[in-house]
């Protein structure tokens, strides 16, 4: 059993171990629970959480949109400091600043060996299949841990592990090539990363579509061509600006049938629509006009890869990926404020990114 140093034990805390904010019943607010300190195996790293992002997926878990086993400590976007290491760990030491790849995989199956480890049959996502970062500490195997460069604040390192990583994976799945145009449907945490990464990958024109004026303003600061979908059909607006051509790549980051349809409809000949947002609902396409005649493609995007994380960290370290500018709102490790942040995400509030800073 892991024991934190005596001086770390706060008055009243040793009563129950570590503080977590957990999902204990589907459809109900998260609750504060004390749980036993997690055991550290020989190949594990124990991390003192310094930042944990509050993600739209967490709102889905709370609402029961994606099934999870309860009780569960949510939180899959985590950065912190190594507090303790298992006996077989050589690559990390106590005190290292680190961030966490949220998938824990076997490393041995065909998918893992081919570098598509998100399909590993024994993959477990932290904060979904095993306890995550809405707590004081987190235990993960060494292969899920990456050194967080000093230049990157913990809050940014945390949210990069989901939103930015997924953005990069989506752009790669969509095979974005230099000189191509991109339309990004939804300017949340994912959208702001995607705008910047698309530009870094050489996109000639980046369109950002949303209905929230504050988010559009933010997109404009990152030099996207903004399209207010509340002011008229975004597909028509895109076709107007591109003289009827459409865009080479469209990314759907919202998770609504209407925006998925718009993403497909905004494609140029040989265009690729990558769907990232989650929904259980279906959407319609007109096969001949919207796909076959243009050899357009619809591509699913699931998670991201460990191999993409160092690329992302290097972009952030060198300032090519900037997640500052008031995009992050820190919140304490308290059930009330975390539930409120989740409520806000559910209502598509204009809160760009809430991050728990314990
Ligand atoms: Zn996330
Ligand atoms: Zn595997």
Please tell me about this protein's structure.
- The protein has 358 residues and is α/β, with parallel strands linked by helices.
- It contains ten helices and 18 strands.
- Strands 3, 5, 6, 9, 10, 17 and 18 form a seven-stranded mixed beta sheet that branches.
- Helix 3 (154-173) crosses helix 4.
- The model is unreliable at 1-15 (pLDDT under 50).
- The chain binds zinc ion (2 copies).
- Residues 55, 57, 76-77, 162 line the site of one zinc ion.
Largest sheet: 7 strands, mixed
Structural class: alpha/beta
Instruction: Give the overall silhouette.
Output: globular
Helix coverage percent of residues? 25-40%
Question: How many helices?
Answer: 10
Bound compounds, each kind once, are: zinc ion
Task: Return Rg in Å.
Answer: 21 Å
Which residues sit in consecutive blocks of at least 5 with pLDDT less than 50? 1-15
Give the amount of beta strand, in percent.
Answer: 15-25%
DSSP E strands, number? 18
Residue-averaged pLDDT, rounded? Answer: 92
- SSE order: EEEHEEEEHEEEHEHEHEHEHEHEHEHE
Summarize the structure.
The protein is α/β, with parallel strands linked by helices and 358 residues long. It has ten helices and 18 strands.
Keyword list:
alpha/beta; 358 residues; 10 helices; 6-stranded parallel β-sheet
């Amino acid at each position: 059993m892991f024991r934190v140093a005596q001086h770390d034990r706060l008055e009243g805390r040793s009563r129950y171990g570590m503080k977590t904010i957990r999902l204990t019943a589907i459809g109900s607010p998260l609750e504060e629970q004390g749980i036993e300190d997690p055991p550290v195996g020989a190949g594990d790293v124990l991390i003192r959480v310094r930042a944990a992002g509050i993600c739209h997926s967490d709102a889905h878990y709370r609402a029961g949109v994606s099934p999870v086993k309860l009780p569960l400590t949510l939180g899959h976007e985590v950065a912190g400091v190594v507090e303790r290491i298992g006996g077989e760990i050589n690559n990390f030491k106590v005190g290292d600043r680190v961030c966490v790849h949220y998938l824990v995989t076997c490393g041995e199956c065909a998918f893992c060996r081919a570098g598509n480890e998100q399909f590993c049959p024994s993959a477990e996502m932290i904060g979904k299949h095993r306890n995550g970062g809405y707590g004081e500490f987190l235990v993960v195997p060494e292969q899920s841990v990456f050194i967080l460069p000093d230049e990157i604040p913990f809050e940014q390192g945390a949210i990069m592990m989901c939103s930015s990583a997924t953005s990069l994976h989506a752009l790669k799945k969509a095979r974005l090539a230099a000189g191509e145009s991109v339309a990004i449907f939804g300017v949340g945490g994912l959208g702001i990363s995607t705008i910047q990464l698309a530009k870094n990958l050489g996109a000639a024109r980046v369109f950002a579509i949303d209905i929230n004026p504050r988010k559009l303003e933010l997109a404009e600061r990152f030099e996207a061509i903004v399209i207010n979908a509340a002011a008229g059909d975004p597909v028509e607006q895109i076709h107007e600006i591109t003289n009827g051509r459409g865009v080479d790549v469209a990314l759907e980051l919202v998770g609504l049938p209407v925006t998925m349809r718009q993403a497909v409809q905004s494609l140029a000949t040989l265009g690729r629509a990558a769907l990232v947002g989650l929904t259980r609902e279906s959407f319609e396409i007109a096969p001949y006009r919207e796909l076959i005649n243009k050899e357009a493609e619809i591509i699913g995007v699931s998670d991201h890869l460990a191999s993409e994380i160092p690329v992302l960290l290097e972009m952030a370290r060198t300032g090519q990926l900037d997640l500052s500018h008031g995009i992050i709102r820190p919140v304490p490790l308290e059930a009330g404020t975390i539930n409120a942040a989740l409520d806000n995400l559910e209502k598509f509030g204009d809160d760009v990114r809430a991050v728990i800073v314990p």
